[in-house]
Structures are given as structure tokens and as C-alpha cells.
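User: C-alpha cells for SMP-30/Gluconolactonase/LRE-like region domain-containing protein, please.
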Amino acid sequence: MGDVQNSLPAIVQAVEWTSLPPEFRRMGLSEHSINQKRGKSLDSFLEGPIYVASLDLLFVTDIPYGRIFSIDSNANWTLVTEYDGEPNGLVWNPLSKKIMIADFKQGILELDPISRELKTIVARFQGEHLKGPNDLVISVDGVIYFTDQGMTGLQGPTGRIPILNGPSPNGLVLSRNEKTLFVAMTRDNAVWYVPLLSDGSVQRIGRFSSYYGTGGPDGVAQDAEGNILVAHSTLGTVFVHAANGELVMEIKSPRGVHTTNLTWGGPSMDVFYIV
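Assistant: Done. Predicted C-alpha cells:
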């Protein structure tokens, strides 16, 4: 019994740092809440955290109201932009010094955080309109991988990266050597392991980790040791897996509710933010 107990994952309790200020809350219906939340009223649905070191700011999206906020180190919120879209995942492009946005309604967008200029980068793929982008990641040489989730699920697993199809592809992260993608397949309640070949194609895809519950994994991140961190959308937990898939830690939400996404930040990149 002692050996079994020693193999259990460590449990860590996260603490609340800040929440959306009252002046930005907007309870009501939107295209997002009608189509994806079965008509549930929302005051916000925060997603896509990224930390931009040069600005010392954390950026987050608010999907149903097309908003992107910045948060400074003193937990002051600023509305950066509001537009006719449903922004979800964000990634910082160090080459262009712009924020890339996976927008469910508009496609892949680019935001200048200084001028606040917003423009569309990709609205179609091979002549077809995108299903509805969810998240994205960028390699060191500027290659952008994004999940095109739409309303896919096990009833029609045709969401795409777009280098492969799957049931509701969501958050994704590249391995340190950029030879593998880890992709959250929300409706499969699993994270897939996707080896990348030199020509950009894939082979021998498998399940890296599997979960339970009515939702599934959402955001995915990686730490300095190569552990894979997975935010589960309905369990209020971030699951931390070693590189071989072993569950080594569970980080619990302070409110015990939905965890959508996660990122590293702070001046030393040692602060772990969970949305």
C-alpha cells in the first residue's frame, strides 16, 4: 500500500490572482452563447492567456463579446480591442512583434498591441472557409500550427490542425525539439501525440493521455522540464504529465470550476497563469 500511495500525483491548490472587473462584465446572449453554450447567458468567457515579456503584460480573450484585455503586474485590466469576432487562442509572434489570434468567427488574425491595429491573416484553407479556429502555436522559424475546431465532435470528427482531422481539436503545444505536437482533442477527452515528419506530414498518431467527465482537455502548455500541462474544461483541474505521459501532479482551481487555458509569464517566466 505504501508504494501505491507514493505513486499518487501531487495535489497543488492554485490561488486566485485577479478576475474580470465589474465594469467589464456584460451578462447576456451572443452568437457564441447561443450556438455553443445552448443559449446560456454569459458575462464573459475568458481564454487564450499569453504573456508578452517586452510589455510586461498578460493578454486574455473574451470569446462571446469579441474582446481582448491586457492585465499588468498590479492586476489592472485594460480593454485592448473589441470587434465583431470570437477570439479564443493567442500566441506571441516574436518575428513580427504581433499577437496572433485564433478567432472562431473570423479566422487567424494579427493584432499590433501598440497601435491596436487588427487584420486578417487567414480566412480560408485550400479555398474553403475555416470551420472555426480555436488555438494556435508558432515554431521558432515562424511556422504557425492552428486547430480548426468548428462544432466537430465524436459525431463528426472532422476538425483539423489542418494537417490531420479529429474530434474537436483544441489547445496545442510543440515539443522542445519541435518534432511533435501535443493536441487536446476535447470531445475525445484526450491529448493526442502527433509526430511531425520533415515535410510537415504526420504519422503514427496516438493518445498521450486520457481523461473523464462531460467536457475535455482545453489549453495545453509545457514547462522547462518538458512536462505537459493540460487544463480540463469541466474538472477544474490542470493535469501535469511527465514526457512519458505519467500523471505527476494535479493543480486545482481555487473555485473548483472550469479551467480553459494556461501560460507561463512574469519577468522570470516562473509565474503560471490559469484561466
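User: Anything notable?

Assistant: Residues 1-5 have pLDDT under 50 and may be disordered.
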